Each structure stands twice: as structure tokens, then as C-alpha cells.
Batch of 2 targets.
Target 1
Amino acid sequence: MTVTPLIIDTDPGVDDAFAIALATASPEVYLCAVTTVFGNVGVEQTTSNALRLLALCDREDVPVARGADRPLVYPHPFRATYVHGSDGLGGRREMLPALSREPDPADAVDLMAGVLRATEQPVTIAAIGPLTNIALLLATHPSLKPKIGRLVVMGGTLGGGNVTATAEFNVWSDPEAARRVLTEEDLPTVLVPMDLTMRCSVDKDWLAQLESAGPVGSTLVSLTPTYLDHYRRVLGREALVLHDAVALAEAVRPGILDCTPLPVDVECSLGPARGVVLADRRAISPDKPTTGRLVELAMDADLAELHRFLLDRLGR
Ligand code: BDR
Ligand code: CA
């Protein structure tokens, strides 16, 4: 089996925690680096969360480098503490091993560039936070683009949003960066929007099975009470949404999500549609004007298979 090198760019985040654990439990990939970005909470906190999550997964060998503390162009104070708690981990970070090391002295872009430069094989990058670090990487190291085999992004929505009526959190948090990454670059990209991740929610029974499967699974479940409260209000039932773990499933097992190539653009106006991802779902024809570039949009999945896959891996 070919083992694909993987970088995760992340803002942990409860669902990011599940995503990182999934990567460390997946033999199809070798996790080479974790880079952090502001998002669910500030970058200092996302960085220490990433370090502690890797300790939980027994992967303290993976370098963690701190990245952007704010968006590229328009700073804003909005963080998702109402979803992920003030520490990003549902107020439960003490459930994780104590901090036992410092982040890498390199910053996020330098660490990613170093991994890309040093690795013979094409690298998969899973971007599960605002796209600021990835935009900076592509802008400052264009010669390394061919080393990126696949970029898998959790972000956007084709229907209603979560952070505004129309926009999804990761894209809305830095729309200029998202536009650079999603529409101006030409690397193979899979976009996993929240329409699909919402449909992939897991229920109490799934959580109970994970809790009893082993120590990593039970620690992950211990981070979820506040997050579950949020999704109980949003969904009207006992379920939670593991957005980033769904994207990671596609990063480690390409094809587990059903993707359709569609032209995608990002709205960067400062009005109410800021951060909207526009995916042109009309049949493509030369006589219809369109905008953006083709990305693989994850539109569907075999939900039962995906739930089994996540449980099997996270329960190891
Ligand atoms: C995305 O926003 C964050 O709150 C989650 O971690 C996920 O990456 C979902 O919109
Ligand atoms: Ca995230």
C-alpha cells in the first residue's frame, strides 16, 4: 500500500480533534506536520490544543507550527467559542495530556514548505480551518505547488450558512484567503461543504459506541458535551456534526465521499453575502457565463459506511 504524506492545517476545535485523531489512526497516510491558524479560538489556544491532541494520539513526534493569528485583509474579533467553548475543546481541555512540548520554531508556512520540499511523493494537505495559512503558502511558494497532490478543504455551503445566514465559518473567517485558494490556484482540490457534513451527523448511540471502544475514543467523547448542546439546538435532536472529520475521511480514503466537479467562486464583498461560496450547478456550456474554477465538490456519501469507517478508526 502506498502511504500518502499528510499535512493538517487546523484550528482545534472539537471536530478538528476528531479529525486529527482520525489521521493518526489511518494507515493510508503518514501525518508529517500539523499547522495551526486562528478560527474557532485564537491561534495561541489552537496551537496548544493541537499539541495536546497529538499527545493523546501518541504522536508527539509530529511537528506543530503556529500560523496566522488573523485574516489576510480584514481583521475581525469573531471566534466560535459559542460552539467550541472558551478553550476550543468544549471547556474540557484538561481531559487531554498536559502540554509537554513547544511548537516548532518554524512558522506554519515555513513548516509546510519544508515538508513539501523534502518529500518525494505528492503530499495531501487537509485544511480544516480558515484558509489563511494555505493562501500564504501558495502565494509565497508557487514553485512547491506541484508537490501538493491533493488539497482537501472543509468549508463553504451550497445552502444556508452557520456563521451568517449564507456563509460557512471557515470561508467567512477569511474570504480573501479562501478566494485565493479555491478560485485562483490550479491544484487538485476537494471542497467538503457543510451541507454534506451536516447530513453526516452522528447520534448518541454512535457516541456511546466510540466512548466504550478505547481510551482515545472515550477522551474524544469527553470533549463533546458543550458541542452537543449547540447541535441539539441547531438540529433539534441528540446528534453532533463532525465537519472536519468528514473532510479527513476523504483525505485519508479518497472516494469515500461522492464528488462532482463544479466551478466555484468566493464572494468577497463586505455586504451580507460575504464569504459565500458560489458553486455553479448548471450544466457547463460555453454560451453560459460562469465564474471561478473547477473543484471537486463533495455532494453525497454512503452515510452508514462513513459512520462505520469513523467509528472503526477512532475506536482503535
Ligand atoms: C467549520 O467551522 C469550525 O467551527 C469547525 O471546526 C469546522 O472546521 C464548520 O463550519
Ligand atoms: Ca475546524
Target 2
Amino acid sequence: MNLLEKLDAAATARKAMLPEGVGAFGIPVEEVYSATEARIGERRVLLLGTNNYLGLTFAPECIQAAHKALDTEGTGTTGSRMANGSYHGHRALEREFADFYDCCAGIVFTTGYQANLGTISGLVGRGDTVLIDGDSHASIFDGCILSGAEIIRFKHNDMIDMEKRLRRLGDRTETTLIIVEGIYSMLGDQAPLADIVALKNKYKCTLLLDEAHSLGVLGETGQGLSEKTGLQKEIDFITGTFSKSLCSIGGFCVSNHPQLDQLRYISHPYIFTASPSPATIASTRAALQLLRNGGNLRKQLWKNCTQLYSKLEETGYKLGPEPGPVIAAVLDNPKQALQIWQRLLENNIYVNLILPPAAPDGKSLVRCSVNAAHTTEQMAYVGDIFAKLYNEILQT
Ligand code: PMP
């Protein structure tokens, strides 16, 4: 098979998963009306397939800040900070992240994906080891590959398996980076951070926590799982993204190790890419302020999460192990998941369809993401439609 024929074979396999004409992936969104509503085809749909956890995509403070930056600093930086220089906004945002996490240093990256690539590949290299959760996001896995370090996976959230692998490493644990996530993006469950920290200390490893889905969601001020568990000082490096609760695009790493700064000089995903646009940085700075003071938004978010999770659980759906803004119904096979996804759309509800191999353990998921801007009535409507579909599709 030549290179193009290989792509044809992959496309055929992909199409075999979906009936002709069903565009479940990369669905065209024609117009966005608000943090909760958009138009898909001719339908006005309720959005439950975004990561807009605090519902801030149309926050006037962020929009105004972005407009101002556009007017005063232009559309883009046109290059990397190492080569072209560091704008005031980028440096200010790094200080604001460091201050938010009460850390001495912070680095801003162009995407959350690159934050993981850049941090991991800057911290470990050939001869070192990364110990990662089996359900890790692709950006973590790709960062590990880029680094050249040996990659060892432990079973998702399984501390016995994790310790078994640490024990086998012997004195290599000192050059081992453990990587876990605050909230896992597929099933919405949280890492057992206290146990992970205990193992990290026992075996003298370094710990990186990706707060991509937990930033804005967990903890009094929204720092994430580190804050919720009071373990901020035990974590060596925290990464995260601007593309979820902060409603823009970019990523960050913060740390209390001053050595973090050295990553700017060695990390290719930081050096060899253009820095985020001034408007992106400005809206992110405004969103970070809203997030820090977003106690009421978090309260509303959790009310919505609990309402929908309880309704789906009581209906009989198999769900991820705990409520949170990611609520995934685990279906028995791709056909069932596709049917539920399609019927939800016919009822003007847009959620994510996750088919193997994208979901862990070959699962088929219908994944909802709940936000603070959803109303109680909207959550009730979604719950009722899910219940109707359960009876119509899963009970027959
Ligand atoms: N880490 C995790 C856990 C993620 O789920 C994602 C994105 N879904 C990223 C990092 C990458 O973030 P971004 O989309 O901002 O590049």
C-alpha cells in the first residue's frame, strides 16, 4: 500500500463506523447565539458539547478587552517570543497565572496541547521515565513521545498498579515524571491526588498535574483539583489550557521551581511557534479575573452538573464514576451511541459522540459537557429527552 492508499483504507474504516450522511465529527455549526445555543443545519440547538464550563464565551469584559487589544496591538504577534520579543500582555498573563497559583513562575504557551508538549519535553528526555495514567489526553502522550523518555502507563486511577510500576523502576524513580489530570476528559472523574502525592513523595519522583478540565471548576477560587484537595504545594508543575473555562486559546505551566524558566530556552513547542495573538491574551486575562471571582458561576455549574448526573443515573444510564461538568453515558456499542446521539440532535440537543478508539477501553460514549450558563429548565429538558431515549432505544 502506498501512502495515499493507506489514507484511503483509514477513511474507509472511519466511514464504516457511521451511516452515509451522518456527520457526527466536526459537525458544521452555522451560527453561535450564546454560551448555550447555536444553529446546526436548520436547528437551533442547545450546546452540551463544548468545554465552556463557566459559560464565559460572550462575557462583555473579555470581548471588550480583546477589542481593545486588536485596536492597539494588531491582529497577531507574527512570530515566536524567543525570536520576535515578548509583548507586555504575555508577560503580564504569566505573572497573573503565577500569582493565581501562588507560584514563583509561569509560562504561557500558544495552545493547551503545546503546554503539555513543551513542559513534558522540556522536563524529561532520553534516559528518563514518564509514568502516565492509562487514560491520559493525547497531548500528554504526544509530549512524552516528543521527549524521548521511556513511557510507562498505569491503569486509570489505579494506585496499586501505579505503585507496582514505581517499585519496578528502582532508583530510576528520581528521574521519573508522574503525569495525571485533575478531571479526566472522557468520563469526568478526578484523580486520587492525595494518594498520588504520597507515592510521588515515597518514591522521590516529580509530579505534573494537568488541570485542563478542572481549572475554573474545582476549588474555592477555581484553581482546580490541586486547590480542592489543598495539595498545591505538593505538585511540581501544573499545566492547563485557556480553551475551556477561560474561553480563548492557549495554555500555561506554573511551578514553584524557578528552573521552569529554562524551558523557554530548550522547549521546541515554546520556541518554534508564534505566540498567542494580543486579543487572545487580553480576553484570557479578563477571563482569569472572572474565573478567580467566579464563586457564583461555580455554584451554578455544580448545581447543573448534579441535576443532570442524578437524572441520568436514576434513569439507568451507565455513567462515569462521579458527577462533574463532563457527564458521559457509556453505551454498550457504537451503534447504540450513534442512535442516541442522532436522536438527541433531532431533539435539538448537541453533545459529543465518542467512538472507539477515541474513548478509553474501546468504550462508546455520548458525552455531555455542562456549563454555568445552562438554566435549570434546559437541564431538565435534556434529562427528560435522555430518559425518553433510554426507554425507546435501550429498553427494546
Ligand atoms: N489537556 C487535556 C486534558 C485536554 O483535554 C486538552 C484538550 N481537550 C488539552 C490538554 C489541550 O488543550 P487545547 O485544546 O487548549 O490545546
